[in-house]
Automatic annotation (TrEMBL), chain A:
SMART domains the record matches: ETF
Stored InterPro entries: ETF_a/b_N, ETF_b, ETF_beta_N, Rossmann-like_a/b/a_fold
A Pfam family recorded for this sequence: ETF
Annotated protein name in UniProt: Electron transfer flavoprotein small subunit
SUPFAM superfamilies associated with the record: Adenine nucleotide alpha hydrolases-like (SSF52402)
Biological source species: Muricomes intestini
Domain of life: Bacteria
Domain Electron transfer flavoprotein alpha/beta-subunit N-terminal: 22-215
Molecular functions (GO terms): electron transfer activity
UniProtKB/TrEMBL annotation, chain B:
GO molecular function: oxidoreductase activity
Recorded superkingdom: Bacteria
One Pfam short name: DAO
Signal peptide: none
UniProt name for this protein: Glycine/D-amino acid oxidase-like deaminating enzyme
Domain FAD dependent oxidoreductase, first and last residues per copy: 6-366
Entry keyword set: Oxidoreductase
CC annotations in GO: cytoplasm
Organism: Muricomes intestini
Amino acid sequence: MNIAVLMKQVPVSNDVSVDPETHALIRSSSEGMINPADLNAIEAALQLKEQTDGKAVVFTMGPQGTQKALIEAMGIGCDESVLITDRCFAGGDTIATAKVLARGIKKYGEFDLILSGALSADGATGQVGAMVAEYMDAPYVGEIQGIKYDETDAEHVVAIKKYQDQEYHIKTELTAVMSVCFGSNEPRFATLRSMRKAKTKPLHVYTNEELQMAAEDIGLSGSPTIVTDSFEPENERRAEMFTGTPQEMAAKLKELIDNEKGKE
Amino acid sequence: MGKKRIGIIGGGISGTCLGYHLSLYDNAEVVVFEKDTIGGASTAKSAGTVCLFDDSLKNRYWDVRLYGFESYLKMEAEEKGSAGFDKTGTLVVATDKKVEATIKTGIALAKAAGYSGEYITDKGRIKEILPDIATDNILGAGYTQEDGYFDGTMISNTYAKKMQKNGGAIKTGVKVTDVKVVDNKATGLTTSEGEDYEFDVIVDCTGPWSKFTGEMVGMDIPIWHTKAEAFFLCPPGKKLDYTFPVLKYPAFYGLRAGDNIFICKSHLSMDLNNPMHAGQWDPDKLPATGGTDDYFIDFLLDQLEMRVPGIVDSGLVSSWLSYRAEPKDFLPILGKTPVEGYMLATGYGGNGVIEAPAASRDLAKLIMRDEMTPLLEDWEFNRLLK
């Protein structure tokens, strides 16, 4: 089974700023990492790949620096990666991003399954996976916990969803798009050896020269979303440092716990 | 006798340790200014290894090592956990005759101070201590069970607490924005809160930031940054069934970090002329995690394949990049500068946790008694002007 994984690089910390005019998140000031839920999507893809002897190709849209995250994804086990990068794609909302990703996937070739993380750690819209399904005219199952594959029925997979302590098994034909929940599996780590090997794996770069997207479909002009306001949440958490002997500090801690209990 | 007012810029291991040693003098009035949190910057990224014998500090400075080690042991004895001591022991591997001689001298010095240590040539015994090690191409290893690593952040906070108990003051979340210099004498400073302070002595304890701190008094502090690139590895079996000791090779070192293993390139293997290793950068732009160079993966893979093959297929849990601050001779800069009343306790490189107690003890003596010591003479600023 050939699987595409949509990956996003997100800031390591919450230390991102907001552009006062466009209300967009300014991410350039922070080191990037693979979006945590996308690691679960990668793990789900690798498990299926190993089960079915296929390949996993990771896609991302972003600036050139995102290559590092793609190499890490290949270090974790993905076979190839595709960086979709062009200044004209910048500023795109989820619709414009999904259109570009869908075009990039089609440009690469045929896939049986397309996986994404259910939510990104920064924007957290959860929209891109579903929109990619729409633009690829493929069925979509969102926020899944796992995927079952039966080799006697290679045309379908079963997505496992959980809702209010119930487990739902949803059978869908392939090609399908699914978003994978954060924490639904235990992502494997890259190793030093696999990271070295990753540097030799194919990393394709698509610009708009390859994708031939119309200007009205991409970037700011292809983004109907209007952000009317954005703000940085006020941090109301306050730390209190205990001082004194261990016994005194333990007594203060107990008092604090007792007080909090009383509030329930 | 009037009080001597001392302002310390920087609340890492250097600033808090100096603040504590100064607070032991009745006539010292100490204020430490920290722009963020105590021991939260480069100190927090220190491995905190204070080993009885390894190559991190020349045997010539044995008493510096011993004073640091015993200071932290006492701290830990006074209040368990206050120095974050993890007594894993240390295995220092001899890869050639020169390293072997250094280890043997270190063992002799440790024994003279009443600690245990042995030089092991029985490869089977070395593998009993560290089953994942390769014993080909090594001569032997020095081993002691009595040391390990400490937690620089815990130590800094403990020193800060002890200093406050002695009457010292700490201003956290407060950045020093200006140092006042009148007739080539530092007289006070201004903070980000807009407050002015007058001091008799101001000490720069800002480590990787010293180049910028020095600019406030018009000095070019000859500090270089070397990269401390570290990985946290999850062993192949996810949990080791033995105590991973502090492991020292000339090119890298490792220690346990919970169930993971922390691995870092040693600072003495850094080449100040290699732009991949060293430069002058802005520590404020360092990411909290990540930021390591690709070359480091190749370096570490080669080293572990050859030296500790049992952990080479560990998972890469996380990584970080820190800047060590050091002058070209890799020794700290302590004491007076051409600007009267402006002193330095910086440039510890990777050895701040080891060296700060002895250096602070001696620097406090200079500040309060105007007495020099052999250590201050060795590490004085003037040597770098020659």
